[in-house]
Design goal:
The protein is an alpha/beta fold and about 230 residues long. It has one domain: Rossmann fold, CATH 3.40.50. The protein is built from 10 helices and 7 strands. The strands form 2 sheets. It has a 5-stranded parallel beta sheet with strand order 4-5-3-6-7. Strands 1-2 form a two-stranded antiparallel sheet. Strand 1 and strand 2 form a beta hairpin.
């Protein structure tokens, strides 16, 4: 249930939960990271609701967006914004909520990329921005730590080809390069919008075994987010 706190809507008792968002490009290793930490007690993992994006009453807005972003970009991103907000607000009994991406990257990375690339009309961008600004102004969406899996676009492209997800077959390297640059500007150079939380950068171009070692190496720093 939502209640009011300091002028914003909050979920009861959720202000005491630690929220960690795992950010990174497509195929940067977010799922592997979440699976690794899902075995830790007191952590509940919230993956991106991709299954919802693939099936809205029988429609697949994710595939439609990749096929024709000018037409379907706002349709998908409106739904992404809604479902990511739901992820942020969904209740959990665990003391730590670990999320795959966030409502912030949905706006600052993916909506921004559509607009900057000329594939989202200015009016669509303005409407989505109005919605986003209303949400973050009126609803409490705390984040305690952002873990950025920093991966080269080339590595992501190779991983995409290996995992063969149907909607991703049309994603070119140039798209991954654009997403990468937006992430770098936001989280590394910090030249676009204010950061909602401290950043921990983990180089993620490595193979699975080395990445598991990286997660173990950074475990204490990540889980210390509940003490920040």
């Amino acid at each position: 249930m939502l209640s009011s706190f300091q002028g914003k809507l909050v979920r009861n008792a959720e202000d005491k939960k630690t929220v960690i968002c795992i950010e990174g490009n497509i195929a940067s290793g977010k799922t592997t990271c979440l699976e690794y930490f899902s075995k830790t007690s007191n952590i509940e993992v919230f993956t991106e609701p991709v299954s919802k994006w693939r099936n809205v009453c029988g429609h697949n807005p994710l595939a439609l967006m990749y096929q024709d972003p000018e037409r379907w970009g706002i349709t998908l991103q409106t739904y992404v914004q809604l479902t990511m907000l739901d992820r942020h607000l969904s209740s959990t009994s665990a003391s730590v909520r670990m999320m795959e991406r966030s409502i912030f990257s949905a706006k600052y990375i993916f909506v921004e990329n559509l607009f900057r690339s000329g594939k989202m009309p200015a009016v669509d961008y303005a409407v989505l921005s109005e919605w986003f600004n209303w949400i973050i102004t009126n609803i409490s969406i705390p984040v305690d730590l952002i873990v950025y899996l920093q991966t080269s676009p080339q590595t992501c492209h190779e991983r995409l080809k290996q995992r063969c997800r149907e909607e991703e077959k049309v994603i070119p390297l140039e798209y991954l390069e654009s997403i990468h640059q937006l992430y770098e500007d936001w989280l590394i150079k910090k030249t676009t919008v204010p950061l909602p939380a401290p950043i921990l950068v983990i180089p993620a171009d490595h193979d699975l075994q080395k990445m598991l070692h990286q997660y173990e190496k950074n475990r204490d720093r990540i889980l210390a987010a509940d003490r920040l």
